[in-house]
User: Fold this.
Amino acid sequence: WLCGGLAVDLLTGRGVRPHRDVDIFAEADAFASISEAMEKHGWSHDRDWRVENATTFANDEVSVDVCLVDVSTDGKVKILGGRQGGEWPGGMLDRHAIPFDGGVCQTLTAENLVRMKTTAIEHLMWRMYRIKDIVDLERLRQIIDGEREPLPIE
Assistant:
């Protein structure tokens, strides 16, 4: 699942700023294959978060932050790595598939992107809103409030 600023851009249908990273959640059993595929295509481990089941890959232009999750049969999400560890409510990783570059990209829903961003800001990571977060939250709330249509689900 794509879950950072690029997810907001895809969901709202337009970018408003350049991005230095790509944030994704992936199911825990995919970690080894993700690492192998990234390394095979020239990506290197950029930094060690010192947390199991989370890593950053980088090339010369961008980094990809991968945080692994476990989804229970009732839909509850346990974040296994990164700075956002812990259990999240059921449905947090409901899928929203967006057409992209001849394929489909799985993102979080607008509602869940808001939940993720506000939880991270208020409780876990920065404890303050950055301008880019305020802009992203406003764009997502426009979708939630019906003022803007999200890109279609395929």
The longest strand covers residues 63-71. The helical segments are 5-12, 31-40, 110-124, 131-144.
